[in-house]
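U., I forgot to send this yesterday:
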Amino acid sequence: MKNWILILLIILLIFFLAISLLSFSQQQEAQISDELTALAREFITLLEKGDFSKAVENFDSTMIKVMPEDKLKEVWNSIVMQLGSFKRQGETRTEKVLEYDIVYLTCVFQSVALDAKVVFNRKKQISGLFFIPNQAAVKYRPPAYVKPDLFQEKEVVVGSGEWALPGTLTLLEGNGPYPAVVLVHGSGPNDRDETIGPNKPFRDLAWGLASRNIAVLRYEKRTKAHSQKFASRKVKLTVKEETIDDAVAAVRMLLQTEGIDGEKIFVIGHSLGGMLIPRIGALDIEIAGFIVLAGTTRALEDVILEQMNYIFSVNGGISEDEKNKLDKIKKQVEKVKNLKETDASSRTDYLLGAPAEYWLDLRGYNPPQAARDLKQPMLILQGGRDYQVTEEDFKGWKKALSSRNDVEFRFYPKLNHLFIEGKGKITPAEYQVTSHVAEIVINDIAAWIKAH
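Result:
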């Protein structure tokens, strides 16, 4: 009897010891998380103050090589130039990936919020830094037009080798074959949902179209999934590497996917993706048709300047600080226009967030004119409340393509750049309001695809 009591006491002792150790471990993890969060906040504060020499002091050896003081300054100034002045730090969240601790810190700029992804090694040194679309901690709730029982999703890999990308294929229940679309992102290092604030327009499109018997493939953009390689500035960066190659790889993957009708694969391009539809189509792969969502038709550097002028003036007058920033953007636009072919070899001097080779590759490119050579039918969609790509761009498509019987146009007066409905004069803050791609857009796309 005494032996049993002794054994029971030992078991209880081990149990309470384990609980104590677990509690201690959790306390340690919480303490480390708090400490790293404080370091991340301090780091962003230094960037805000322009103290880049002190900001790099906690970089590890790799980061010092990849992003020394001058490049860190260039990256931060480029972000401020494009998004407006830094307003405040927001919420944080943490995660652990292998031996690295990651702090996500929301940075609110004048036009939009970004998440600073600050990666720490075991020595609490910064070993990675990325600015990504704000991942608001809002649970995605599908819009009413989605019918989840009609489809399922599976993880896939788009492309192969060093540029392979994680993606999601939204498949229909049943054997098919079904029509399918590839979603091609706009500017920036977008995720597969093209997340902007709490909104996920690509997930809306995928689930909405799947609810109407159309399969959808979406994937992480190369500049997001392989951001570290591009941060090193050692790899080539034009729209071919940024967007076109992966869109083509996605189409080829669908051609080899069971249950997909290989003669009914379409490509939907949003914003920059829409602008590049003619270049994707020119590669003569097996695509049944193209859909352009707010595709830019003018020189990209001019569009950026127009966007920033709108953002600075949307609330009334432009301050002296904003005028100075606009002047800097104008000077960079001028430099872009004055680039020479011999400048293409330089990947260190970035203009408007991109190297010389990026801008030279786009020089002379006229999307509507190039689209005239496409043999496939097209659907062009535009929101009337879009300040990023405007009705002027929409008119550019119509002027070049309205004589073709296989090109259709849709204009939605109440929709913004994300094809989300709103009222009044749009400001960047509207993107931080949870909403969904308008059902009429889903229905129009689905009907057009089925008609072709």
